[in-house]
Amino acid sequence: MSSHTGSMPPPASFAAAGTPQLISRPPVTDDELAIQCTLDTAARSSTGVFIYLAFWVTITLFSGVAEQSPWFTGLNAAALGLLAVARMALKHLLPVLMRTHRRQAEWLFNNLMRANALYWGCLTGFCLYWPPLAPISVIMLVSTVGFCAGGNTMLAIHPALRLSYPLLMVVPVVIAEALNPNQYNVMLMLLQSIFAVYLVKSSRMVFEDYWAARHAQRLSDERARELEVASLTDGLTQLPNRLYFDRQYDYEWARQCRYGGHVAVLILDLDHFKRINDTHGHPVGDICLQRVAAALRDSVMRSCDFVARYGGEEFVVLLPETDQAGAADVAQRLLDSLRRIQLECNGTAIPLSGSIGYAAMVPTAGWNPKALIHQADKALYSAKAKGRDRACAPDA
After folding, report:
1. How many Å apart are CA 307 and CA 334, to the nearest integer?
2. 168, 198, 223 — which closes off a domain?
3. What's the confidence (pLDDT) of residue 21?
4. Do 93 and 174 reside in the same domain of the chain?
5. With 80 as the cut, is the pLDDT of residue 374 above it?
6. Does residue 309 sit in the same domain as residue 368?
7. What is the CA 53 to chain-centroid distance, rounded?
């Protein structure tokens, strides 16, 4: 039997170590929400990874700029292509990086997105400022407006990119227009200011809707988890109840059918508990059950062991990977812990003891899982018949 070195988890998390006890989805943490937001943003923005390169190549080819300035066209196409490839590569690596190097991954993703916006904004501003590129200045400006609107939809959910992405794309254009403050450019700057206000307000709505939905889902998961834990917890003792024990027992039986380990079950019944209720009243009986539950929880020391209230004054203990001798040791420790409970009512000491039946076996596929519990139950009756305040194994 494995040594017992820890203590039982509290009721809200009384799942055995390494076993998926609760069916409801655990609510996500703030860090998990932030990670998911970045992943969602990356997924949204991936649809337009190569659109900047495609626009630039199309505009320059059909306008004749590619023929007039091949080096300028080619260098910018190469830069936009490299940005697109880098973004696509990061998108595929991001789920792993966000869990292993989150801060670095976030920094890389955010700044790669900003670099893309700034590069296109500078390219558009240069087209507006340099006279030889005047033939494509209008279409570049219209493209930039479209990219700002698209980025507003794609990236508005991300707090770090919601405003910085369109801002970095628009500012270089405004600077280029300000360097040549004619009536046309002043009009453009005014229109861009109005458009920027619109982007800020509309992106805020998308941002708030996204995060409201995320927080609502988390609240729903929290409520579902609380309800499930409540349904599996005994209200008086705060131990797992019989429903939870049955679920855990089925899981452990199936697990040991695969791995060939022992499973032991102990059933404990408080001795003469009806007499305590009749003599001192049910409130005192409830206190007895609470004290017994605490003593049992403290005595079952491995995180994988499992104690539950079986019903009335009966408790049950599940011991994975524990043979008959190990179960006998645990049973004796439980009996000793009951005897050490000091309880009195109106100056009268209330002695507590219990009878325990225990059994262990190596589960085999095809066997009835209830056979082990039946053996422990028979052993419990044997302990009672032999005088109580003792632990018995099944008769050979």
Report:
1. 11
2. 223
3. 63
4. yes
5. yes
6. yes
7. 38
- DSSP secondary structure string for all residues of 307-360: EEEEETTEEEEEEET--HHHHHHHHHHHHHHHHT---EETTEE----EEEEEEE
pLDDT for position 47: 85
Mean pLDDT of the chain: 89
For residues 17 and 144, give the distance between their C-alpha atoms in angstroms, rounded to a whole number: 55
Of 228 and 263, the one with more pLDDT: 263
Is the pLDDT at 162 greater than 70, yes or no?
yes
* Closest to 272 (Cα-Cα) out of 355, 194, 201, 330: 355
- Report CA dihedral (89, 91, 97, 99) to the nearest 10 degrees: -160
pLDDT of residue 84: 96
- Mean pLDDT check: name the lowest of 7-21, 73-87, 237-251, 382-396: 7-21
Which is it for strands 314-320 and 306-311: parallel, antiparallel or unpaired? antiparallel
Q: How many domains does the chain have?
A: 2
Q: Same domain, yes or no, for 217 and 260?
A: no
11: which residues sit within 8 A by CB, 6+ positions away? 229, 233, 238, 239, 240
DSSP secondary structure string for all residues of 371-388: HHHHHHHHHHHHHHHTTS
Beta carbons within 10 angstroms of residue 246's beta carbon:
15
SS3 state at 270? strand
Residue-level length of the chain: 396
Q: What is the rounded CA–CA span in Å between residue 328 and residue 390?
A: 11
Domain housing 274: 234-392
Helix (H) or strand (E) holding 119, with range, is helix 102-129
